[in-house]
Amino acid sequence: MKKGTWKCFAARLVFLILVISRLACPALASDELTQSGDRVFGDWFVRDLSAEPGTLNLITATDVYAGTVNGYIYESLLKRDEKSAKLVPVLASGWEISPDHLSYTFHLKKNIRWSDGRPFTAKDILFSFNRIMDPKVDAAPLRVYYQDIEKIEAPDDYTVRFHYKVPYFLALEMCGGIPIVPAHLFKKGEDFNTSPIGRHPIGTGPYKLLEWKTGSEIVLERNKNYWGGKPAIDRIIFKILTDSTVALQVLKQGGLDMLRLDPIQWARETENKHFTEKFQKMGYYEPRFSFLGWNCRRSLFSDKRVRRAMTMLVPRELILKKILFDLGSVVTGPFYINSPDYDKDIKPYPYDPKAALALLKSAGWNYPPGSYVLEKNGKPFQFQFLIPAGPKLSLQIATILKEELHEIGVDMSIQRLEWAVFLQKINEDDFDACALGWSLGWENDPYQVWDSSQAVKGGSNFVGFKNGEADKLIVEARKEFDPQKRRKMYYRLQEIIHDEQPYTFLFTTKALYAVSRRFQNVVVYPMGLDPLYWWVPKANQKY
Q1: Where are the alpha helices (DSSP H) in 376-437?
Q2: Backbone angles phi, psi at 291, to 5 degrees
Q3: Do the beta carbons of residue 538 and residue 40 sit within 8 Å?
């Protein structure tokens, strides 16, 4: 999963809105790129980033912003096709799987070069794997997907083989989607975490970095050494705009070609003829969900009754209707709501302040004589709630929760932080509660986020959730190739998480985009939008 924003690693963190999402760009097949005689070259594609990536080092980056940029620069051995969602080759020409599911062999294409002109070989894969598994490298969330690999070998420059100690149902996708960086750029003994590649990435993808102006923009240009089909757009520019209101104004003024809209922007601020003449709007569901996270290591939230009370103080249905304009669904667990692994029989805890107060009292929180402030052992119930600066929705929900808690005698303060500082506090366990989200993969392994072993500093189980039965289910499910049997384990896991409430699960919402009508071939595929296939007619080109 990925960490990210309320606009939302495999899970990747998103702001209020976080499986390592595969960053591989498609190999641009020439037949797809020339499917229309209208397709022409030229122009730029300008979009926003609502927070600045901390690094573009493909192996240490964990947030959705770095993933968005790196997706145009880097590729991997295979990817999920945008249209069919099936695994297809990219840097690999093919692969074989041993009958016992313990060996995965990939054959590499031989005409591929990094954007600096150096050849891509199996040595790059071996180097990247060794960096991922190096405990000195800040890749803990990524490392969990490869921990059962016994060894990796390269019989020649164009063959690589992964050997597993135990079967893993996601092995093909994880090995095929392994982040790959160019080995020739790194010196022996160099600190990988601070490598210049974090600011100057070199990939095999259709675009390469031209310029990164801190706090302003990241500019990519077409990679002339690209081995695949040629994309039409000359440059892709990411403008760093942390305020969604400002971003919408920049879009309306022609400074952006695409913007992910907030629900109120979608429903109220872009529903007019002038806007729709210039932009087309499209909404579709993505595998993401948002949540409030309660730090179970803190004495305040170590009792599940308290965590459940917090959930029952959040009027989710009202927020969905009044703030999100019903553009989503309330969720109860860590799987994508439209996936068969999501247990629809688990119903959300209701908004019920009286029941919430009763739960808090049963956990030892009461009003001292003459006071309206809840106390326990002489200490008032007060805590700090972290949210990322920028997204309005995270602040709206935090404000609602603050008011609800104030009504029953709980003091919650809100702290808004820039994304890099916010993420540092989360990774260092320096928080009481927070608002975030997960961006999921097509298939998911909950180990990264929910296993007890990941409840360490820098781990994705940053709320410190620990449960022996949950751990057993998660580990057994990793070895189960039968989806039905694995699903039963996941359903039981969701029951446990629902009972424990380390998260207050919020919503899966629609991805809401506005795209300039200059662009042609703008299609919503099953896996979303893909600007790599867009172009602009000569008459409409601006740059």
Answers
A1: 392-407, 419-427
A2: -160, 165
A3: yes
Cα separation, 475 vs 468, in Å, equals 11
Find the domain containing 294 and state its range. 288-510
Tokens of 197: 């590649």
Average pLDDT on 458-471 reads: 96
Give domain status of residue 419, yes or no: yes
Residue positions counted in the chain:
543
Q: How far apart are CA 374 and CA 378, in angstroms?
A: 9
| pLDDT greater than 90 at residue 22 | no
Q: Of 390, 286, 287, 269, which is closest to residue 325 (Cα–Cα)?
A: 269
Nearest residue to 473 (alpha-carbon basis) of 501, 504, 445: 445
Residue 483 lies in a domain: yes
Question: What's the number of domains the chain is made of?
Answer: 1
Q: What is the pLDDT of residues 86-118, one digit of tens each?
A: 899 999 999 999 999 999 999 999 999 999 999
Q: What is the pTM of this model?
A: 0.86
What is residue 150's three-state secondary structure? strand
Token pair in block for residue 372: 């309206």
Specify the 3-state DSSP secondary structure of 12.
strand
The two structure tokens encoding residue 460: 């994705």
Q: Are 483 and 303 in contact (CB under 8 A)?
A: no
Q: Name the DSSP letter for residue 39.
A: -
CATH number at residue 356: 3.10.105.10
Domain presence at residue 542:
no
The reported pLDDT for the residue numbered 37 is 57
Which string of DSSP letters, residue by residue, matches 446-476?
THHHHSGGG-STTSS-TT----HHHHHHHHH
DSSP 177-209: T-----GGG--TT--GGG-GGGTS---SSSEEE
List, in order, residues 6 or more apart from 245 with CB less than 8 Å away: 392
In the chain, the amino acid numbered 6 is W
CA angle 196, 91, 444 (to 5 degrees): 85
Give the per-residue pLDDT at 252.
97
CB 437 within 8 A of CB 6: yes
Query: Cα angle at 280 between 441 and 318, to 5 degrees?
Result: 60
Residue type, 77: L
Neighbouring C-beta atoms of residue 458, cutoff 10 Å: 15
In-domain check, residue 134? no
Q: Report the C-alpha gap between 408 and 353 in whole angstroms.
A: 8
| β-pair partners for 2 | 12
Is residue 225 classed as helix, strand or coil in its secondary structure? coil
Cβ–Cβ under 8 Å, residues 76 and 22 = yes
pLDDT in tens, 283-301: 999 899 999 999 999 999 9
- 472 CB-near residues (< 8 Å, 6+ apart): none
Q: What is the rounded distance in angstroms from the CA atom of residue 284 to the CA atom of residue 328?
A: 10
Mean pLDDT of the chain: 92
Least Cα distance to 125 among 63, 72, 58 occurs for 58
Which residue, 87, 17, 32, 80, is CA-closest to 328?
Answer: 17
The answer to whether 441 touches 20, Cβ cutoff 8 Å, is yes
Question: Rounded to a whole number, what is the largest CA-CA distance in the chain?
Answer: 80
